[in-house]
Every structure is written in C-alpha cells, then in structure tokens.
Amino acid sequence: MKTALITGITGxxxxxxAEFLLKKGYExxxxxxxxxxxxxxxxxxxxxxxxxTGRKFTLHYGDLTDSTNLIRLVQETQPDxxxxxxxxxxxxxxxxxxxxxxxxxxLGMLRILEAVRLLGMxxxxxxxxxSTSELYGLVQAVPQSETTPFYPRSPYAVAxxxxxxxxxxYREAYKMYACNGILFNHESPIRGETFVTRKITRAVxxxxxxxxxxxxxxxxxxxxxxxxxxxxxEAMWLILQQDxxxxxxxxxxxxxxxxxxxxxxxxxxxxxxxxxxxNEQEKGVIIDVDEERLSALGIDPSTIKFGQTVVKVDPTYFxxxxxxxxxxxxxxxxxxxxxxxxxDLKALVTDMMxxxxxxMRKEEYLKKGGFQTLNYFE
Length: 378
Ligand code: NDP
Ligand code: GDR
Hints:
single chain; about 375 residues; UDP-galactose 4-epimerase, domain 1; four-stranded mixed sheet; binds guanosine-5'-diphosphate-rhamnose
C-alpha cells in the first residue's frame, strides 16, 4: 500500500484527489489549517471507520509557511508521494496579500522539497507541484504548451513561477522525482464560491428560483480553458507514476469567454439572455424563456421576467493586470500519460448547475417555510 501526503486537502482538488487515491488503496494523510470555523466540509464524507472499510485517512494540522511543521509531517508520515496543492489560490486576492501569497505559494514548495531532502528521502518520495496556466499570463502564443514562455501577471502567478522553477531545480540538482502539472482552470460543484464559474452557477440558480435579482461580474471577455477537477486529479496521479519525472500541461484545448459561460448556465435552466453595451456599461437581459424546461426542473416560470437585467458589470472585480486568453495544448499528456478529459464544458456546466440548483432549493424551501435564522447578536 502506498502512502500519500496531500497539502491543501480541504480545497477543491485536495478533496477529489483524496477520494481518488483512497479508491486506489492508498493510505492518505492530509494537511489542514487551523480555522475558527469548520473547514473540512469537502472531505467529511471520507471519514469512515478504518476497521470497517480498511481505508486509511488521517488529517494533520499544518501550514505551508511553517517549515518545522512540514519537516515533522514528512518524517512522521513517510510518504511515497507528496501532492503540494496548498496555496492562497485566488488571483485577485493575491494583489491584496502579495507577500503572504509569495510565502505560501512560492516558498511553500521550497519547504517541502527541503523537508524531503533533509530527511534523506529523495529516492523514496515523489513530489507533485500544483503549477498553473496563470504562468503564461500575458499572451505570448496560443495554444500554450510546455514550451511556451511564461509572463506572469499577478503576485499569485509570480509566486507560482518560483515554485515551478524550484521544482525543476531540485529535480536537476538532487535527482529528485519532482514534477509540475501545469493545470489550466478546472472547476466542479465544490469549486470555491468566489471563483467565477461557481459564482455564476450559484447566482443563476438563485435567480431562476427567484431568490436573487442579479449577478455582478468583472471582465466578461476573459477567455479560459475550463475542465472538470475530477479529470484533472487523475492527471496529477499519472504524472507521478511515470519512469521519468517531467512537467505536463493539463487542459481541454477549448477556450470560452466568461460571457459565454454565463449564457450556458442560464441556458441550462431554459433562460436565454442577451448582452449589450460595452465595458463597464455591459449588461445581460432576459430575452426568452423556455417554460417547458423550467417546469421540467420544477421551477415556477412566473418568477422569471422578460427584460429583467440579470447581469451587470462591477469594476471592483477587475484586476490591475488581467490574463486575457488561456487555451492549453495537452498533447504531451495525451501521448505520454494517456490522459484524456471525460467532461467537456457542457457536461461541466450541467454538473455544476444541477448541484447548485439542488443547494439553492434548500434555501428556497426554508424561505417559503418561513424559517428564520436566529440573530445571536440582539
Ligand atoms: P482551493 O483554494 O480550493 O484550495 C486551496 C487549499 O490550500 C485549501 O485546502 C486551503 O486551506 C489550503 N491552504 C491555503 N493556504 C495554505 C497555507 N498557508 N498552508 C496550508 N494550506 C493552505 O484551490 P484548488 O483546490 O482549486 O487548487 C489546488 C491547487 O492547484 C492550488 O495550489 C492552486 O493554486 C492550484 N491550481 C488550481 C487550478 C484550478 O483551476 N483550480 C489550476 C491550476 C493550479 P483552507 O481550506 O483552510 O483555506
Ligand atoms: P483565475 O480564476 O483567475 O483564472 O484563477 P477566476 O475564476 O477567479 O477568474 C477567471 C476569469 O474570470 C474573470 N472574472 C471574474 N473572476 C472572479 N473571480 N469573479 C468575478 O466576479 C469575475 N468576473 C470576471 C477574471 O477576471 C478572470 O479573467 C483560477 C484559480 O483557480 C487559480 O488558482 C488557478 O491557478 C487558475 O485558475 C488556473
């Protein structure tokens, strides 16, 4: 039985990867941060009585900014594979917390590599770094592959650039099995609520159910290569199973604007919207409603109003420097790893919309039932 140590286990990818590795029979150790609120929602379902299932899943407190903690955890868990998924992963937030982002996202990987090296585990332990398509930043060429030059456009991307190169350097200097997965955007029903896809599917679900009037977004013209997180964690694992340690781009090869992602999400519930206006004045208005589709979903069509403005631009969400266009070329992963995504964008939108509609129905049910949340502060 192999042992894996996952940092960022409470995040989207950490949760899917933990589930994936447990199914493969791994013993999984995860690093979680201390928080004043419960932060294990995404992995709570993985707790099972090990006597009944034979599964091994253990959480440890830790932080990527604490090197002695990381050394101890690597020593105690003796992993065959480390997946470094922990990061302050929000690009816009990295402009507000640049130094912390550099520390966690950049130096964090150095601390892990050093822990493995100092403990004399370079022959035993393979290390995966969660690198990102944000490294490409300002468009140099498309589609972006392993050989496309980097031009990072945020403190997040600059920090990740350090982590990328320190991984390459430790591989070359110490013959470590250390690899970068350069993953393009990947989403899911458990995507963080402030990333654009999840923000959209949550809001569209609420609008359809009459729980919210409109959605405010930033740059609608940004183009992203969106895949499903379930497909992408499989690629992480494949990257660590090869004879030689190498870096791989993981992407679908299809790019879409934020605007079209909004359209597709509304279309899922039978609502057609049209965008008009430019830049900060742009807005999305309902122009058609498929009542049959709404009814089939159990939604009361009378909550939807023709001509209702459901999307507006709020410049607060603009970034000081933006990444305009990402489209990945995953030929190397397809050829060498045999990796191919199972989800296309439509299947991804369907998965996310179904999940968020389900979630928002709970809210609708409580609201209609007159349920009031207690106010603890009165
Ligand atoms: P999430 O933001 O969902 O999860 C990030 C995880 O890192 C959380 O578990 C978080 O803990 C943890 N974390 C944050 N800071 C620290 C720290 N200082 N020490 C320890 N743990 C920390 O990200 P994703 O799951 O979406 O992404 C996983 C990784 O892949 C990240 O490194 C991200 O930058 C990278 N990536 C993601 C892509 C994507 O499209 N999703 C694409 C390319 C790369 P907590 O729950 O307590 O906040
Ligand atoms: P990104 O993801 O920055 O690509 O980083 P995000 O979903 O935050 O933004 C994608 C694009 O949408 C535009 N946008 C908005 N973004 C957010 N969050 N909120 C809005 O209201 C909004 N309106 C428009 C953004 O400007 C951007 O162009 C994600 C993260 O998971 C990183 O950790 C990862 O490395 C990259 O994907 C690949």
